[in-house]
Each structure stands twice: as C-alpha cells, then as structure tokens.
Amino acid sequence: MAKIHFFEAGYCTHPACVAVRGAGFGACQFPARVFVLEANGRFWLWDTGYAEHFFDASRGIYALYPAITPVFFNPSEHISRQLHAIALNPSDLQGVIISHFHADHIAGLKDFAHIPFIGRRLAFDFLKPLKGLKALKQGFLPNLMPSDFESRFMAVEQFLPKALPEHLCLDEPHAPKTAWALPNSNDEILLVPLDGHAIGQIGAFVLTDKGWELIASDSAWSAQNFLGRPPAKISHLIMHDVPAFYRTLSHLSQWHQRGVAIHLSHELDEKT
Do the Cβ atoms of 103 and 140 come closer than 8 Å? Predict the structure, then answer.
C-alpha cells in the first residue's frame, strides 16, 4: 500500500475569519504543508511549500503578495533539506507534482533539477503568458518557474484515465468519476481535478493501509470549511471559480462522510 509522508515548509499569516467564517480577526498561521507520496517502491513530492526563492520573486509589483499574506520561512525548512528525514535525496524522486501554481506551492521548484514536473496543462497554458498584476491576481509569481520548466513538464491530461472506485464516486453531475492514474504507482495514487480555488487545481486519492485518503490541496483551508463553516465571502476575491469552489467543498464533505481521510495544504488550527 502507498504511504503519505508529511512536512511543512514555512508559513504565512492572515486573519482567521477569512478562512473560517466567524473565526475572529486575529492573525493565524497557515503552514505550507508538503507531502511525499510513496508507492510501488517510488517517491513523488507533492508541492514544495516556501523557499528562499519566494523572497527574490516577490519584488516590485509582486511585493503585494507578502504584504497581504506575510511569509515566514527558515532555510532549514526547505523541503529539499527535509527529505533526509525519510532517507531520501532530491534525485530519488520520480517527480514533483504541482497541485496548482500559487507561489506557496511552487516556491522551491528551482531546487529540483533534472526531475519531471507533473501538473495540469490547462493551468500551465493559462498562466504561462501572465505578468504583473494579471499574474499576481492568480497568486502566480513568474520568477519562481525554472527556465527549463516546459521541457520537463508532464501533463496529467496525458496519463491513463481510470474510473474511480465505486466508494469514491459521488452521485453529483460535477463530481469526478474518473481520475488520472499516476504512472508507476500501481494505481495506488489517482489524480483528480478539484476545481474552484485555482485554475487546474488537482488532488490525489492515495490508497494506504488505512484505506483511501485524499490530499485535497487548497480545496479548503480548514476541515471546518466542509463541516459547515465556509470561508468568509471576502475570500471569493482570490478564488478562480467561486461556484466550483463550493461544489468541491460539497464533495469533500461527502467523501469525509464516507470515511476518507482528507489532508489539506494549510490546515488552519482547528481550535480557531
């Protein structure tokens, strides 16, 4: 069975009430969670969290990004340096899977040379030409992208489609019925679209010894979002597709009710 290894690579702060309606105006930490997926004797990195490159890329007009969500990062937290905790080197990875292209998910890409990048072609093609305010509105900092990104990019749309197990299929027209099987994962990692928060966002169903678990990326900022306390309406300003966000939130709720463990990229403190 597959395994999920959990890490954190820096954090940002923001008022809690933006992420969870009614949570108060106090600033809370939103850790940048990073996952290593292990299946069939192979390893994939899921996002990179923050890295030193973020501060270089967030200058000029892009300085608005950390002004709105202040970022805190210690070089020791760089995911490429944390891999030793599970006896891995960056070169041991089969690829870096990009859930979506917001800066807190791709800031460390430049530190993974000669490794494939895996993500949605839909998202990359949309974001590639954007600069300045248009890029910033999408949470995208162009200077975080490695110069050879496109030559190493593997689009999930090219992967073998596979029907989701019946247990994961929801009786809703917009819920995913098929997934992209991650190559060489023995069908234990299934990539699915999780629309709404960002263009082309994906998640991963991972078959562990506890059953199916879902890495849900930024489909929610707290489990409270899919348990009845959604984000504040002001958060809609940073969503790519608001109706799709709430459809996906409904899907998370139903998967949760079916016993699927859901792991979010930021996991606001549940006590908020």
Answer: yes
DSSP state of 235: G
Tokens at 156, concatenated: 């999930």
Q: Tens digit of pLDDT for each residue in 223-261?
A: 999 999 999 999 999 999 999 999 999 999 999 999 999
Instruction: Tell me if 155 is assigned to some domain.
Output: yes
How many domains are contained in the chain? Answer: 1
CA gap 120, 206 in Å, rounded = 18
Amino acid 24: pLDDT = 80
**Under 8 Å between Cβ of 109 and 96:** yes
| 190: in domain | yes
Closest to 14 (Cα-Cα) out of 226, 253, 238: 238
Q: What distances in angstroms separate CA 83 from CA 19, 39, 88, 93, 114, one per listed residue?
A: 30, 16, 5, 10, 17
CATH number of the domain within which 202 lies: 3.60.15.10
- The pLDDT tens digits of the residues spanning 25-55 come to 788 899 999 999 999 999 999 999 999 999 9
In a domain, 272, yes or no: no
Domain range for 49 is 3-264
Within-domain flag for 270: no
pTM of the predicted model as reported, rounded to 2 decimal places: 0.96
Distance between first and last Cα of the chain? 34
**In DSSP terms, which residues pair with 169 in a beta bridge?**
none
Please check the confidence at residue 267 and state whether its pLDDT lies above 90. no
Assess contact for 97 and 133: CB atoms under 8 A: no
C-alpha distances (whole Å) from 151 to each of 117, 145, 154 are 9, 12, 9
pLDDT score at 270: 44
